[in-house]
Amino acid sequence: MKIEELKKLLSVGENKNVEFKSFYRIDMAGKEVCAFLNSKGGYLVCGVEGDEGNVVGLNLEENIKKIEMVLIKQIIPKAPFFFELHKIEGKEVLVIEVPAGKDIPYSFRNEIYIRAWNKANKASVNTIREMILRRQNEPERWERRFSDAQIDLDVDYDHLQSIGNKIKNYGRYSFAVEKNKNTILESLSLEKFGRLTNAGDVLLCSNTANRYPQVIVKAASFPTGKTSDEFRDFKNFEGPLLEVLEDVFNFIIRNTSTRSHFLENSLERKDENIYPLDAIREGLINAFVHRDYSDHRGSLSVFIYPDRLQISNSGEFPKGITAKRFGLGHISVLRNPDIANIVYLCGMMEKIGRGGLLIQKSCKKRGLPEPVWTSRKDLGVTLTLFAPLDTTEAATEVTTEVTTEVTTEVRKILEVMSGEKTRKELQEKLELKNDEHFRKKYIVPALEVGLIEYTIPYKPNSRLQKYRLTTLGKKVCADLKEENNE
Q: pLDDT tier at 29 (50, 70, 90 boundaries)?
């Protein structure tokens, strides 16, 4: 959260999602965090008093990670929430962002609290009973179900130790890595009654794809001037989630261009990827953490084109979240809180609900076009990062060359192409009856010169397949329109 966002939060005042406190104490914070988890999430802001949000500041005696760790241990069941320390006019303000909990009721020191009348109150017996009944009536989420994996045979113990070390080193949790598997798994909420959960399977097993093929990540890089079903590089990734995440990140770095520039007042040259690395990493983490693992038809895919990078995952935007709000930040809504919690404890994810904002700001800082998020029930959620408009020095020359070489048929298809269109819709627009003639004379040539593309590139023959203009196609369309107006 930026200072400007915090000031805006303070100016709005206290409400059902925001609580101000002039001090920080573990007993107070535990009650408030517990209440937010049992409600719809929100923010606890310490170092601020009154409904007007007057900043009085804090003087924390201990390291913020230590304070956070103490609170994490006392909330049951485990849940991720996020600490940030800011300075306003030289005064320290602590912000604790709490997502809406998925495993209600949550307790703090064996007491259950809820938000009522904009305050944290102890839940009554009837309220607790209703919460438990509601949870029993709701289907258990996929990550909490039992996996068929065998803890002794399938869990990668080296990877489990690696996660334990990351968590210890980051200072968010503390346990002895040398303890037996079951003790560690139980402390991380990845085991129930001696059996591994699906979250534990995804995070820790090398052979998860044998049980759940949908966890395989598809990554492909497509060349310039080729049809979209030809690959420059293609790979399927499977294994423990954090290892796969790093492998896919490296695949993207390997298959995207770098740009070089000299530092100001220096002869030192700096090379950097055309996409901000923090935006790539945040986009991948969001996809891994928020994807719908229960969808056996779904997957996570990464497609790299000369003009853009697309990261797609199964699932939809959380309820109430739109593409616009995704880029502005929002209160955390977690589809897989157990998986998110491990990624967070390892220090790989700082602010759930702020990833979209971070991606957008990174792209803006680099001077890139705005990233785009789309959500469709059949295709899932897709993040598109666009390459610099001047990725190649010859971009203008290429466009001019393509403009003069496109056939009459390709020109016609460009004239009727707007948004995403099926093959049938394009044929009807052009009043063409012969399917094969349309494919050979219109679709294939337009694909080959990179003016249009598949919306589902890894399944060219999908019944859901559509076509859309590429960045080059849009430029050529603009040139043709200008040509016609002269």
A: very high
CATH of domain 3-138: 3.30.950.30
**Beta-carbon-side half-sphere exposure of residue 8 (alpha carbons within 13 Å):** 5
**How many angstroms separate the CA atoms of 386 and 256, rounded?**
12
Amino acid at 25: R
Prediction pTM value: 0.63
| CATH number assigned to the domain with residue range 395-485, chosen from the 4 options 2.40.30.20, 1.10.490.160, 1.10.630.10, 1.10.10.10 | 1.10.10.10
- Which CATH architecture describes the domain 217-386? 2-Layer Sandwich (3.30)
Total residue count of the chain as it appears in this document: 486
For 442-446, the CB contacts below 8 A with 24+ separation are 442/409, 442/410, 442/412, 442/413, 443/413, 443/467, 444/227, 445/406, 445/407, 445/409, 445/410, 446/410, 446/413, 446/414, 446/473
Tokens of 118: 């904009």
65-93: pLDDT as tens digits = 888 888 988 998 888 788 888 988 889 99
According to DSSP H, which parts of 138-180 are helical? Answer: 151-154, 157-170
Tokens 């901000």 belong to 276
What are the tokens at 443?
Answer: 């679709």
| Token duo for residue 54 | 């007057």
Q: Tell me what percent of the chain is helix, strand and coil, each rounded to the nearest 5.
A: 40, 20, 35
Residue 105 vs residues 71, 121, 129, 197, 318: alpha-carbon distances, Å:
17, 13, 10, 20, 21
332/395 Cα distance (integer angstroms): 41
Q: For residue 358, what is the DSSP state? A: H
